[in-house]
Amino acid sequence: MILIIGAKSDIAKKCAHEYAKNGYNLTLASRDILELQDFASDIKIRHNINVILKEFDITKFETHQEFFESLEKKPFGTIVVSGYMNEQSICESNFKESLKTINTNFTGAVSILNIVAKHLETKKEGFIAAVSSVAGDRGRASNYIYGSSKAGLSAYLSGLRNRLYKSNIQVLTVKPGFVNTKMTAHLDLPKKLTASPKKVASDIYKAVEKNKNILYTKWIWKYIMFIIKSIPESIFKRLNL
Amino acid sequence: MNLKSWGLYPKIKSKVFPLINKTQLSKLLSSNKEFIPYGNGKSYGDSALNENIIHTKKYNFFLNFNEGTGLLHVQSGVTLDEVIEVFLPRGWFIKITPGTKLITVGGAISADIHGKNHHIDGCFSQSVEEFTLMLGNGEIKTIKKNDELFYATCGGMGLTGVILDAKIYLKKVNSKYINQTTIKTKNLKHTFEVFEKYQDLPYSVAWIDCLSRDIGKAIVMVGDFRDDNNLDYKKDKNLNIPFMFPTFVLNKFSVKLFNYLYYKKAPKRIEEKKVSIDSFFYPLDKINNWNRIYGKNGFTQYQFILPKESSFQGLQEILSKIASSGKGSFLAVLKLYGKENKNYLSFPIAGYSLALDFKIEKGVFELLDTLDEIVLKHGGRMYLAKDARMSKETLHKSYPKIKEFLNIRKKYNLTDKFNSLQSKRLDI
């Protein structure tokens, strides 16, 4: 069974199709499972698999242990897709928004993945994939609250990978560049650099199959971010990125 | 945006509103605009075209399936193609399917489509248990068999509201193959005899060579599902016509040649073989955008049906008219039909129907008007899902239940809310 956290997002829905297509049963966790009911029936019928819907709020840390215990079948793979992004200027002036960003993207993921990791360690097989972002590779003035929350997540996943390696558990850090989703619908994204949620999902599936550690999607972001990371801070601070 | 119908004629610029959910649709309908639902754009003429279009194709969740009864509940944008891909491997097939699987369930209901098994199983509405319909005021009604809105909506060309979801019965099958028998006939009389002889087989259709001197010479194909437990179905790869053919490519000579070769292809007088469901039911789906072969001006498909008693006489007259006009028809499909149903605007009546394509060119509309007169004289009518040009007088004369249809449009305040170029042309 594959557990997808933050199942209402566009990337999560495509991941659900990707795994269902390959014969996996699913547990879809989301704050609003009523809205996912038709989606779940659809995926169940189309791919002839089982789908369970579970209410889950990634920012309600205290509920996470109970949530995981309530899963009748424990997941072989867990994919965390939950994410929150508001405008940088709003986050700067409104700490509540900063906190929401950090709690959704970082603290919440840490909370649930601590629990999942502990379980997988006893099983000695399985995987964890979490959607971080290229924005976490370097803080930029235009998006550093979101970026730093994702940087935290990337660092966490890197440590987790190091820890779980001994237990034969794969940890995949997914770093999408631009993606056409509800979250970015208002932005005017450059076509060549923008992936569809379907592409991100199929890249995730393939990267898990190939036992990869870090996935940039589209692949070109690996090189873009390499350049961005190589710029000396003394120059970088003057740039308008 | 330029949404097109399959015939690429007529052309209109339209605003496209995707159907996302019920709340959004009801809000959309509360504006003072008029709309027409549009599924997958496979109706040939102007029945799904207007300035404001409700695009339903992405409203396509499978909602439920009952393994015991074969009852499938889907949103209206699901295509028959999707249903087959999901269910044929599990031993189920669409009960009534037209010559393309690339249509939505909503579209299948609206045109009350029929297929090669009409003489036995009737129209698509026969397989529909119930559906939900959003009226112009946002009210959602569940429509069951025998409701007046069922009779009006099945075949009602989207003019009674937006179909949201439907429960349809699938049929149990045990193969992805059809046992097909192909019979070459000499003339129209012989073709009719072959249809009658094989009428106990569920599927039958004939390809007629309209330009031949032997009027009604045909290749009749009949068949049924095999029973070989081979359900390992995967879609065939498609060919593509990547650009518009210049309009001169299809002419009297190239079509004659095609028809000659096609007739020649069936080697013996009677031949049996095992064919895939895709090549039996959907030979043209293999070529994406085949409508481009007619060129940028587009084409119209002329499909009429005549009552059985006047079929022979009428078809003789019409086929000789077409042969003498020399207007090219790439496809001419003849078929025997069963009983008429109760729906107000469903096309089929017991008799024979012929469907032919005409490239839009000088003189075509005049020719078709002449053919209309012959069809009317023999008590027949034309299919709305194909039509882009018939006159309102022709329609009102040939569909006797048009009054009931118009009454429903009035009764539920649909006349100002749902309109297509076709409904305005035909005054319905």
TrEMBL record, chain A:
Its EC number is 1.1.1.140. Pfam families: adh_short. Keywords: Oxidoreductase. GO terms for cellular component: membrane. InterPro entries: NAD(P)-bd_dom_sf, Sc_DH/Rdtase_CS, SDR_fam. GO terms for molecular function: sorbitol-6-phosphate 2-dehydrogenase activity. Coiled coil: none annotated. SUPFAM superfamilies: NAD(P)-binding Rossmann-fold domains. NCBIfam families: PRK07102.1 (NF005489). PANTHER family: DEHYDROGENASE/REDUCTASE SDR FAMILY MEMBER 7B (PTHR44196), SHORT CHAIN DEHYDROGENASE FAMILY PROTEIN (PTHR44196:SF3). Belongs to the short-chain dehydrogenases/reductases (SDR) family. This is Sorbitol-6-phosphate 2-dehydrogenase (EC). It comes from uncultured Campylobacterales bacterium. The lineage of its organism: Bacteria, Pseudomonadati, Campylobacterota, Epsilonproteobacteria, Campylobacterales.
TrEMBL record, chain B:
It comes from the Bacteria. Residues 9-173 form the FAD-binding PCMH-type domain. GO terms for molecular function: D-arabinono-1,4-lactone oxidase activity; FAD binding. This is FAD-linked oxidase. It comes from uncultured Campylobacterales bacterium. The lineage of its organism: Bacteria, Pseudomonadati, Campylobacterota, Epsilonproteobacteria, Campylobacterales.
